[in-house]
Design goal:
six-stranded parallel beta sheet, single chain, binds pyridoxal-5'-phosphate, 3 domains, Rossmann fold, alpha/beta
C-alpha cells in the first residue's frame, strides 16, 4: 500500500538526515529555532508549502541540499536544534514527574473528534480542536503521560472561499498522504495494523496513523481501507460532514474503536478523558470490557466512573449530539445484552429526563465520575443546564466543576514578542509561565519597544492580507472589489479592531454594524479613524451563518465604506495567529451566557492586544478593570432586539468615549502611553492565568490524578 510507505519512501543525506525526525514531530511548530531551521533550508518553498516541513524536505532541490551540506553555520544550527530536541524528548525532570509521580506509570487517554496542532494538518475545525492541540502541547511540555485518540480525516475540514456576491463556498481539499506529518501504525507482521470494530450488525476495518506532538502521541483512525464497503470507507472522510447516521458511525468508531486501538497497542490508560460528548461511547466500551471480565454492571460502572473525565464545551443546545432512539437501537441491539441491560435500561443511560433521544452529553455525564465546564461561568451554566440528571440536588450541588481553558503560549505569542519576553522577563519565562511573578516584570519593557513590536506585528498582518488579495486577484482575474474587500486598502495607522470566530448566530458578528451611520462616523473620522477586520467560517450547512458573512462582505465591497471594513477568507490557525497578534483590539460580543470560554481573546491578550468583550466565558473572570473593556452587564442582558440594541449602544459609547481617545492619545514621540500601559496590563494579567500550562496542571491536579479519586472516596 503506497500510503503506508510514504514515510520510508525518501531519505536525506546522512549528515542532515535527522531533519526527518524533526519534520515528523510537531515539536518543531512551537520551537522558533526549529522553525527558523526549516525556513533557512528554502525560504520560498517554506512559504509555498504553507510551512509544512515534510513537503519542504521532499521538494527541496538537490543543489540546495548540497549547498547546505557545505554550510558550516547551517550545520552548527542543525546540531544545536537537534540537541535541544533530544534534550526535550529525553528529559525526565518534568513538572508532572515531580508533582505527580503516581501518574508516571499510567497513561491518560485523551479522546477528541478534532486536534488542531498545526495548520498543515487539517484535522480540526475550530476552537474545540485547537484547544485539544494546545492541551497536547502543554501536556508534552509538562511531561504529562497523555495519549491522544482521534480521526485522520482524508478530506480534512472545509476551506472557505467567498464568491463575489459574498456567499461562502465550501472547498474540500484531500490530504496528500505522502507529505502529511503522519506515519502508519504497523501490526506485528510489519503490514499496516488493521482492527475490526463492531458497527451495528457488522464490523468495520480501521487503520491507524500516528502523529507525534512532542512527547505526546496521537493515534488517528481511518476507515478508508480496502475491505470496507465504499460507504464505510467514507465514514472518516470529513470532520462534521455527512448525515446523522454517518455522524453516529463516526462517534461509535471514535469511542469504541478508540478504546480497541489503545488495547491493540498495549496502552492501558488509568484515566480516560472525553473532550466533548462526541467520544462518550468510550465509557460504554470500558463498562462492557469490565463486565466481560466478570464484574457486575454496578461494579463495572463504579470502576469506570472513577477513571473517567468528561469535559463539556458549550451551553448551546445544538452543540450537543442527540440521536434518534431507533437509530441507536439499530446499532446497539447486540451491545446492550453485553452490558446486561435491556433496550429501555440501555436507552435510559443517555436520556435527559422529560425528553426522548440519545443524548451524548447525558451519557458522558452519567458515566464519567469527574465532569467540568471550561470557564467559571460555564461551570455555573452547565450545572443549571444539566440539573435534571441529578433531580435530588440543587443546581449549585450538581457535580460539574470547571477548568478554565487556556492557550499554549509558545504557539500563540508572536515569535519576536517572545524574544522580548526573553529579554525582559528572563529566558525561563516559558518554564515558569504560570507564575504571576514572572509576568509582573512586563512593566520593565519600555513602552516604545513594546509599541514598535506591536506595530511590526500589525504590518505583518496587513502585508499578509494584501498578499492574499493580490494573489487572488491575479489568479482569478475577477472582481477587483474583492481585493479591496480582502483588506487591500487598510491603513496601518488606524485603530484596527479584529473580530474572528465561527459565524454562528449567537456570536452576533454583525452587532457592531447595528447603527451603520454611527459606525461610519468612526471609520471616517479624519484624525482618529477606525477600521474593522473580520474573519470566520460558517458551518457548511448553516445558511444563517453564511448570510451573516454575506452581510459583512457586502459592506467590505461597498465603496461607501472605503475599504475600511475587510473580510479575510479561510479563518484557520495560521490566519488566527496573524490576527490575534496584529490587530489593535480584540472584539467579542456573543449573546451571554452562550460563550463557554472564548480562547481567541486569551490569545490576543497574551500578545498585548486588549480585549473588548461581553462579560461571558473567560472574560467574566479575566477582566480586571484595567486590562481591556467590558461590553454590557455581567451575566448579559438576555436575548432579543432590545438587548442587541443596548449592547450595540454600549460598544459605540465605549469606543467613542474611551477606546478611540486612549488609542490616539500620543506623546511627543507618538507613543500612546496610556495604551501601552493597557497592553502591558493585558499581558501581565492574562498570560499566567490563561495559558495551557495552568490549564493542564489544573486538569492533572483536580481531574486526572488518582490521588483525587482516593480523596473523593
Ligand atoms: C482560537 C481559535 C478559535 C476559538 O476561539 P473562540 O474565541 O472560541 O472563537 C477558533 N478558530 C480558530 C482558528 C482559532 O485559532
Amino acid at each position: 500500500m503506497t500510503t503506508a510507505d510514504a514515510y520510508h519512501d525518501w531519505t536525506l543525506p546522512e549528515r542532515i538526515s535527522r531533519l526527518k525526525d524533526l519534520a515528523y514531530n510537531l515539536w518543531w511548530c512551537w520551537h522558533p529555532e526549529a522553525r527558523a531551521l526549516f525556513k533557512e533550508i528554502d525560504r520560498t518553498l517554506w512559504g509555498e508549502t504553507h510551512h509544512n516541513p515534510v513537503r519542504l524536505l521532499r521538494g527541496v532541490p538537490k543543489e540546495r541540499l548540497d549547498a547546505l551540506l557545505a554550510d558550516a553555520a547551517f550545520l552548527s544550527r542543525y546540531d544545536a536544534v537537534l540537541a535541544a530536541f533530544d534534550r526535550y524528548m529525553g528529559a525526565e525532570d518534568f513538572w508532572c514527574a515531580r508533582a505527580h509521580p503516581e501518574l508516571q506509570e499510567r497513561a491518560i487517554g485523551y479522546f477528541s473528534a478534532e486536534f488542531g496542532v498545526h495548520h498543515s494538518l487539517r484535522i480540526y475545525s475550530g476552537g474545540l480542536g485547537i484547544l485539544a492541540g494546545d492541551h497536547c502541547k502543554a501536556a508534552s511540555d509538562l511531561g504529562v503521560p497523555l495519549v491522544g485518540v482521534g480521526f485522520m480525516y482524508p478530506q480534512g475540514y472545509v476551506q472557505q472561499r467567498i464568491a463575489s456576491d459574498g456567499w461562502q463556498q465550501n472547498v474540500y481539499e484531500s490530504v496528500d498522504w505522502s507529505v502529511a506529518p503522519i506515519r502508519p501504525v504497523l501490526g506485528p507482521s510489519g503490514g499496516r495494523m488493521l482492527l475490526d470494530v463492531p458497527l451495528g450488525r457488522g464490523t468495520i476495518k480501521v487503520a491507524v496513523w500516528r502523529v507525534q506532538v512532542g512527547r505526546v502521541p496521537l493515534y488517528l483512525m481511518d476507515t478508508n481501507v480496502e475491505g470496507n464497503s465504499p460507504q464505510d470507507r467514507e465514514i472518516s472522510g470529513r470532520l462534521y460532514g455527512g448525515d446523522r447516521a454517518t455522524r453516529l458511525r463516526q462517534e461509535i468508531i471514535l469511542g469504541i474503536g478508540g478504546v480497541r486501538v489503545l488495547r491493540a497497542l498495549g496502552i492501558h490508560p488509568g484515566t480516560f478523558h472525553a473532550n466533548e460528548g462526541h467520544s462518550a461511547f468510550l465509557f460504554l466500551e470500558l463498562v462492557r470490557e469490565k463486565i466481560a471480565g466478570g464484574k457486575s454492571l454496578d461494579e463495572a460502572r463504579r470502576e469506570v466512573s472513577e477513571s473517567a473525565v468528561f469535559t463539556t464545551h458549550t451551553p448551546v443546545e445544538a452543540g450537543h449530539d442527540v440521536f434518534a432512539e431507533e437509530m441507536i437501537a439499530e446499532y446497539f441491539a447486540d451491545y446492550w445484552p453485553q452490558l446486561k441491560l435491556d433496550r429501555e435500561a440501555f436507552l435510559d443511560l443517555a436520556r435527559v429526563p422529560g425528553h426522548s433521544g440519545w443524548n451524548m452529553t447525558a451519557l458522558a455525564l452519567r458515566l464519567a465520575g469527574r465532569r467540568n465546564g471550561v470557564s467559571r461561568r460555564h461551570g455555573v451554566v452547565s450545572r443549571e443546564m444539566w440539573k435534571s440528571l441529578w433531580p435530588d440536588r440543587a443546581a449549585e450541588a450538581v457535580p460539574i466543576s470547571h477548568v478554565t481553558n487556556g492557550v499554549h503560549l509558545e504557539t500563540w505569542i508572536q515569535q519576536d514578542l517572545g524574544a522580548l519576553y526573553d529579554r525582559y522577563l528572563g529566558t525561563d519565562w516559558r518554564s515558569r509561565q504560570d507564575d504571576p511573578a514572572v509576568w509582573s516584570k512586563v512593566a520593565a519593557i519600555p513602552d516604545e519597544v513594546l509599541w514598535l513590536q506591536h506595530n511590526r506585528n500589525k504590518s505583518a498582518l496587513l502585508q499578509m492580507m494584501r498578499g492574499r488579495a493580490r494573489t487572488r486577484w491575479m489568479s482569478e482575474k475577477g472582481d477587483p472589489a474583492q481585493a479591496l474587500a480582502g483588506g487591500a486598502l487598510l491603513d496601518h495607522s488606524a485603530l484596527t479592531i479584529g473580530f474572528a470566530r465561527r459565524f454562528a448566530g449567537y456570536k452576533r458578528a454583525t452587532l457592531i454594524l447595528h447603527d451603520i451611520e454611527r459606525l461610519k462616523k468612526m471609520l471616517f473620522d479624519s484624525w482618529r479613524p477606525v477600521q474593522l477586520v473580520f474573519a470566520g467560517k460558517a458551518h457548511p450547512a448553516d445558511d444563517g451563518g453564511k448570510a451573516l458573512i454575506q452581510q459583512v462582505y457586502r459592506l467590505a465591497k461597498d465603496p461607501a465604506f472605503g475599504g475600511r471594513i475587510a473580510f479575510v477568507e479561510d479563518y484557520d490557525m495560521h490566519l488566527a495567529r496573524y490576527l490575534v497578534q496584529g490587530v489593535d483590539l480584540w472584539l467579542n460580543n456573543p449573546l451571554a451566557p452562550l460563550e463557554a470560554c472564548g480562547t481567541s481573546g486569551e490569545k490576543a491578550g497574551v500578545n498585548g492586544v486588549p480585549n473588548f468583550s461581553v462579560l461571558d466565558g473567560w472574560w467574566e473572570e479575566g477582566y480586571n478593570g484595567a486590562n481591556g473593556w467590558p461590553i454590557g452587564e455581567a451575566g448579559g442582558r438576555g436575548s432579543g432586539p432590545e438587548a442587541d440594541k443596548a449592547d450595540a449602544e454600549d460598544i459605540y459609547q465605549t469606543l467613542e468615549r474611551k477606546i478611540i481617545p486612549l488609542y490616539y492619545d500620543r506623546d511627543e514621540h507618538l507613543i500612546p502611553r496610556g495604551w501601552t500601559k493597557l497592553m502591558k496590563e493585558s499581558i501581565r494579567s492574562v498570560a499566567p492565568k490563561y495559558g495551557a500550562s495552568r490549564m493542564v496542571k489544573d486538569y492533572v491536579d483536580a481531574l486526572y490524578s488518582p490521588r483525587t479519586e482516593a480523596a473523593a472516596r
